[in-house]
Design a protein that fits this description.
There is one protein chain. This protein is an alpha/beta fold. The protein is built from 10 helices and 9 strands. Helices cover about 35% and strands about 20% of the residues. It has a 6-stranded parallel beta sheet, sandwiched between helices. The chain has a 3-stranded antiparallel beta sheet with strand order 5-4-6. The longest helix is centred in the first third of the chain and has 15 residues. It is globular and about 55 Å long. The structure holds 2'-O-acetyl adenosine-5-diphosphoribose (OAD). 2'-O-acetyl adenosine-5-diphosphoribose (OAD) binds next to helix 1.
Length: about 230
């Protein structure tokens, strides 16, 4: 792969599945246990903030007990050793890429371990519950919400993502079902911009036909093997 210099990696819930974090879709997925409309929209938060805060408090507590798996470690190795451009765009709101040591990570759907103050617009690192409406560390207002992008809200830092996609020679999608836009559209965008496209997933994603190559299996096996190919030849 000597012709490849700039890489964009998109990760989804499948990358964290083997660390014990539920995926969203499929048997036992989070959206089978909870209705999106009840817990993951601005309307739900306006209607029943306690239900929404309790849901995210549970999730925030749960992810703090999880550890990165071989897929996160392999991507951290790629980040440390790849001399060309690299952006790991994650839809995940856990911090397992960072725990593994990756630096070039962008959280397009926000982060569980941040709270966002809707009064002063400051984001603060947050590991505790929000249900008791604690004051914002910056302004004191009791206006903190999870810093997670809900359905109907705009994902974060799209300009940076599209800038990286324009430069990319290779786009790799890992552990995502391809059900949620705009992330699901990145493969088509990448192809149109001339990049090669590779999918690593347990099963074919909804946009599978758009990839030049698909490798099926668990991320903990596929990702270290692909990273070794890129770095060791
Ligand atoms: P999904 O739950 O939709 O899809 C997870 C994908 O991971 C599926 O295609 C699985 O086949 C695959 N998978 C499961 N276990 C795997 C493993 N061990 N190795 C490799 N692949 C595996 O999760 P996402 O695509 O990440 O958004 O969902 C996208 C967005 O929908 C999330 O960011 C979230 C959700 O609603 C928001 O909350 C805004």
């Amino acid at each position: 792969m000597t012709d490849i210099r700039n890489i964009v990696v998109l990760t989804g819930a499948g990358v964290s599945a083997e660390s014990g974090i539920d995926t969203f879709r499929g048997g036992g997925g989070l959206w089978e246990q909870h209705r999106v409309e009840d817990v993951a929209t601005p309307e739900a938060f306006a209607r029943d903030p306690e239900l929404v805060l309790r849901f995210y408090d549970m999730r925030r507590a749960a992810i703090q007990t999880k550890e990165p798996n071989a897929a996160h470690h392999a991507l951290a190795r790629l980040d440390a050793e790849w001399e060309g451009g690299l952006l790991i765009v994650t839809q995940n709101v856990d911090d397992l890429h960072e725990q593994a040591g990756a630096k070039r990570v962008l959280h397009m759907h926000g982060e569980h371990l941040n709270a966002w103050c809707t009064a002063c617009d400051v984001r603060s690192r947050w590991t505790a519950p929000l249900i008791d409406r604690p004051p914002c560390p910056a302004c004191g207002a009791r206006s903190l919400r999870p810093d997670v992008v809900w359905f109907g809200e705009m994902p974060y830092r799209m300009d940076e993502i599209y800038a990286a996609l324009r430069e990319a020679d290779l786009f790799v999608s890992i552990g995502t079902s391809g059900a949620v836009y705009p992330a699901a559209g990145f493969v088509r965008d990448s192809r149109e911009l001339g990049a090669r496209t590779l999918e690593l997933n347990l099963e074919r994603s909804q946009g599978s036909a758009w990839f030049d190559e698909t490798r099926l299996g668990p991320a903990s096996e596929l990702v270290p093997a692909w990273v070794a190919e890129m770095l060791d030849g």
